[in-house]
Design goal:
The protein is α+β, with helices and mostly antiparallel strands and about 325 residues long. The chain has 3 domains: about 120 residues, Rossmann fold; about 100 residues, ATP-grasp fold, B domain (D-amino Acid Aminotransferase, Chain A, domain 1, 2-Layer Sandwich), CATH 3.30.470; about 60 residues, no CATH class. Helix 2 packs across helix 9.
């Protein structure tokens, strides 16, 4: 992870107390906007990108809850002046090793990952979101359980490796097949991602199902996909369409050039359920996917580190809201 030149020039003296700490990656372009806003507002921040941590000298003082960072004669102190932490990465390691990773690379990867988690000793600051809360909230079964208890409609769901499970009795012969967790694999030079597939249960219930469990869910047809982005007590909702209509199946398989985004106003009770869900999972930020089908708002999932930059606009000022929250968390 690196310190970008703009941040280095921001320091007017050799030592700077950090007010906002950003833990992310080089490719997190949406967070670039947050950095520019913090810079404009005069907030002392430090951005560390996970790919280039070894280029910076870092020291954690566990008993003091402090992180020290040194580079090019400058020092940043992440301690008592810290207001918030913007944690922009999942806590599950979904990148499957390709079989050619050296022992040194494996060691570096595991130890830097643990080092990043260790920054949680700075627990007097507001984390958006706390990694321990992210870890729990990323678990789809936990999400569905919380959503149902709050009062969301949740499609009938089984997570199973049993080809004799009573799926047809509970759901029917037509099902939505999903992974238990985000499925990100590598095959040679190709990166593979698992999408929701509408299929027949009999095509899934083969002798090979026992090798790995899957999520089997009642399909939602004639639906309208909704994305609700929550930041604190603020939220924005958009409808995702193609040619003015809802998209059956996984809308992410639709060409970007065909995707249409429209602002959408949720009923007040559904908005409150979204805010309540994020709070109940111990989060401050969350990207929630809903589906409107047959007049009912169905909960699909919530991503504690979900992308928001593609929805940011003058009408949906997410950058300002997130930067404002980090600057003055409440």
């Amino acid at each position: 992870m690196t310190l970008r030149p703009a941040r280095i020039r921001r320091a007017s003296k050799l030592s700077l107390d950090v007010q906002v700490l950003i833990l992310t990656s080089e490719l997190d372009f949406a967070t670039d906007r947050i950095c520019r806003k913090l810079l404009t507002d005069g907030i002392a921040f430090l951005r560390l990108n996970r790919e280039t941590l070894s280029e910076v000298s870092l020291t954690i003082l566990p008993t003091q809850g402090m992180l020290l960072c040194r580079k090019d004669g400058h020092e940043w102190r992440v301690g008592e002046k810290l207001r918030s932490v913007w944690w922009r990465q999942g806590t599950f390691d979904r990148n499957v090793a390709n079989g050619y990773t050296s022992v040194n690379e494996q060691m570096e990867r595991s130890q830097w990952s643990a080092f990043m988690r260790s920054i949680m000793v700075a627990d007097s600051a507001t984390w958006v979101n706390d990694p321990s809360a992210i870890y729990r909230a990323e678990t789809k079964a936990v999400q569905l359980n919380h959503a149902a208890r709050i009062g969301f409609d949740v499609p009938e769901t089984l997570m199973t490796n049993d080809r004799f499970a009573d799926v047809e009795e509970r759901i029917g012969s037509r099902v939505a097949l999903k992974s238990i967790d985000t499925l990100l694999l590598r095959q040679g030079d190709d990166q593979l991602f698992g999408y929701t597939t509408l299929t027949d249960w009999r095509a899934v219930a083969t002798k090979h199902l026992h090798l790995a469990p899957a999520t089997i869910q009642a399909p939602l047809l004639n639906k309208l996909d909704l994305r609700v982005t929550v930041m604190g007590e603020s939220h924005w909702c958009v409808a995702i369409k193609r040619h003015g209509e809802g998209i059956d199946g996984d809308w992410r398989l639709t060409s970007k050039s065909d995707i249409e985004i429209e602002d959408y106003t949720l009923p007040a009770d559904v908005s409150q359920k979204c805010l309540q869900l994020v709070r109940s999972l111990g989060l401050r930020y969350g990207a929630i996917d809903l589906a409107l089908s047959k007049g009912r708002y169905w909960f699909i999932e919530v991503n504690p580190t979900g992308e928001w930059g593609w929805l940011d606009s003058d009408e949906r000022p997410m950058t300002s809201a997130i930067a404002g929250y980090l600057s003055c968390p409440c």
